[in-house]
Write a structure and sequence with these properties.
By secondary structure, this protein is α/β, with parallel strands linked by helices. About 35% of the residues lie in helices and about 20% in strands. A 7-stranded mixed beta sheet has the order 5-21-20-19-8-9-10, with no helix packed on it. α2 packs antiparallel against α3 and α3 packs antiparallel against α4. The longest helix is centred in the middle third of the chain and has 21 residues. It is globular, with a radius of gyration of 25 Å. The chain starts with a strand and ends with a strand.
Length: about 500
């Protein structure tokens, strides 16, 4: 069987078909009704199976269409029918085009491709989901189905096939950008699935697939766990810190491989720079070290050198935190270029200054070979470009007073020379924090990735909601690409992958 969808609908349907999951609602009842109407209206046109199954389905859908048009028994009729029809699916797969290669994208979204794959075994009870068009450059999903996490973790390897079953097993099979190889790997996979009886052993299939096509499991992939704005010592952070530990551990369990992970913390480690908060940060560092992460990359933020908005005599406390201008990771050919953006007293907006540019430039010039051959990533606390304030963000009193004037001035005081320096050094990735807003921007071919508060220290317009944020970034040097997943738990304790979560994902070539 095969169905054509967009990625959002495929994610919703995957949740819907899993008997162990609560079907997530769409943003409102009207959208849900219209989506169901569209789904049923186009179901048979986008559905590929044997003639016998198609005939049975067409007859059963007639009554469902009538009910939807008259808004009668909407949920009972549609949910009961669809769940019943697909209840015994032994496996489900999703074809994932890259969104970056026109020829392979056209092949993987073509109805003829889906018809060909279904014809391998038209009576097969398995289900193939196909996207009607390539994914957007930035993928935004809510209520993410568990198997989709695996595909997003492998975003740099798209195009591919995501396969899962109702037992909770899932695998990702990498395809190719060459059309002939794509067709060969697709045909091989679905012929193997056609041989299986009942629920297939997906891990065995993955191993057989990689061996048959001589695909190496080793590559030059590194993951970055981007955290920011912990504000350790604040009442919110003190209360939520055990939850942050739990969320980080859940992300480690999601990866379940040996890919190295480098933590990056982009400032505001403490709420104020005192000895007690420094001790809290030492405990946080100890937790990261205990999980087998690589050396953390750390920059300071305005709260690390101030008390109540003013430079404080005890800011020297923050100097006890180990920071350096460049963190070299020779095993992975990566260099993190760390800027001090809390210079000259411009704490709210941030300022770097020529002296800092010269200092970091000298550090890079001492390692000319690394500077040329390694992937360089810029890290600072403040915003290099203006930030857009989302609807859920409750503004502070001074933002409400100054309005647009404040919003337009939110970038670094010296953002223009900073971006010119970044471009001159051929840096394609910048990580930052500060405003507690998770975001991805592409500015002059530079990927600018902001992390929200990793303890959820924000003012939200929705009572009881927050954004406990972390970014999961995959740097793939073999494929010369980067993928980024912005993740947030919106209800404290509700689950970062629950119906109370959201995620944005982006994958781009960086060389």
């Amino acid at each position: 069987m095969g169905l054509r969808f967009n990625l959002k609908s495929a994610n919703w349907l995957s949740n819907f078909l899993d008997p162990t999951k609560i079907t997530p609602e769409l943003s409102n009842k009207f959208e849900e009704l219209e989506t169901l109407k569209y789904f049923v209206k186009n179901f048979t046109n986008n559905y590929y199976t044997s003639q016998r199954q198609h005939y049975i389905l067409e007859r059963q859908l007639d009554n469902l269409r009538y009910n939807l048009e008259n808004e009668a028994d909407l949920y009972y009729s549609s949910y009961t029918f669809l769940k019943g029809y697909f209840r015994n699916i032994p496996w489900i797969s999703l074809l994932l085009p890259s969104g970056k290669d026109r020829d392979s994208d056209e092949l993987l979204t073509s109805p003829n491709t889906l018809k060909t794959l279904v014809s391998i075994n038209p009576e097969d009870p398995g289900l193939i989901l196909q996207l009607e068009e390539p994914p957007e450059k930035i993928i935004a999903l809510e209520n993410i189905f568990p198997a989709f996490k695996l595909s997003l973790s492998n975003h740099t390897r798209w195009p591919g096939i995501l396969l899962w079953n109702m037992a909770g097993d899932s695998i990702f099979l990498e395809l190719s950008k060459e059309k002939n190889l794509i067709l060969e790997r697709l045909t091989w996979t679905y012929r193997e699935l056609a041989k299986s009886i009942g629920t297939p052993n997906l891990k065995s299939l993955e191993k057989k697939f990689n061996n048959y096509f001589n695909l190496s499991s080793t590559d030059e992939t590194v993951r970055i766990l981007h955290l920011s704005d912990l504000h350790l010592g604040s009442s919110i952070s003190n209360k939520r810190l055990p939850r942050i530990f739990s969320l980080i551990e859940s992300q480690l369990a999601e990866f379940a491989d040996e890919t190295p992970i480098i933590p990056v913390i982009s400032g505001d480690l403490m709420d104020s720079p005192n000895k007690e908060n420094l001790s809290n940060f030492r405990l946080f560092e100890g937790f990261l070290n205990s999980k087998g992460f690589k050396q953390p990359v750390i920059v300071l933020g305005n709260h690390d050198v101030r008390k109540d908005g003013w430079l404080w005599s005890l800011f020297k406390t923050s100097l006890n935190i180990s920071t350096q201008p460049v963190y070299w990771f020779d095993d992975y050919k990566i260099g993190f270029i760390c800027f001090n953006s809390v210079n000259a007293g411009y704490l709210a907006r941030g300022f770097i200054g020529e002296e800092e540019f010269l200092h970091i430039g000298n550090a890079l010039d001492k390692e000319k070979t690394k500077s040329k051959e390694y992937t360089l990533i810029g890290v600072l606390h403040h915003h290099p470009i203006p930030v857009e304030i989302p609807d859920w963000y409750r503004k502070s009193w001074y933002e409400r007073i100054f309005g647009n004037k404040f919003e337009k001035s939110e970038e670094l005081e010296d953002s223009i020379p900073f971006l010119a320096w970044i471009k001159a050094r051929n840096i394609k990735i910048i990580l930052h924090g500060h405003k507690h807003i998770p975001r991805v921007d592409i500015h002059d071919d530079i990927n600018i990735i902001g992390c929200g508060s990793s303890t959820g220290k924000i003012n939200s317009s929705e009572t009881g909601e927050t954004f406990i944020s972390m970014n999961l970034i995959t740097l793939d040097r073999n494929r010369k690409s980067i993928s980024c997943r912005l993740k947030a738990e919106r209800i404290p304790g509700g689950g970062i992958n629950s119906v109370a979560s959201h995620e944005l994902a982006i994958s781009r070539e960086i060389y």
